[in-house]
Amino acid sequence: MTDRDDTFGDDEIEEGFLSEDEWDEEWDDDADEDMVSFVCEDCDYRWDEASEEENDAIVCPMCGSDNVTQL
């Protein structure tokens, strides 16, 4: 039987994982600014949607109520 070395050196990164520098480059600070949170006053379901100018008729995706408040 052969001995296996499953340790990684300091300069090795597992395949599929981003390094710290790559993570910072991929991060988009403005990505979450376009999301708006809502809560249904009837069933208390909460969700996020992309912000749109015309949000006149928001309907709860769980119960179908139009008694919805933007948080």
From TrEMBL:
<protein>
    <submittedName>
        <fullName>Uncharacterized protein</fullName>
    </submittedName>
</protein>
<feature type="compositionally biased region" description="Acidic residues">
    <location>
        <begin position="8"/>
        <end position="29"/>
    </location>
</feature>
<feature type="region of interest" description="Disordered">
    <location>
        <begin position="1"/>
        <end position="29"/>
    </location>
</feature>
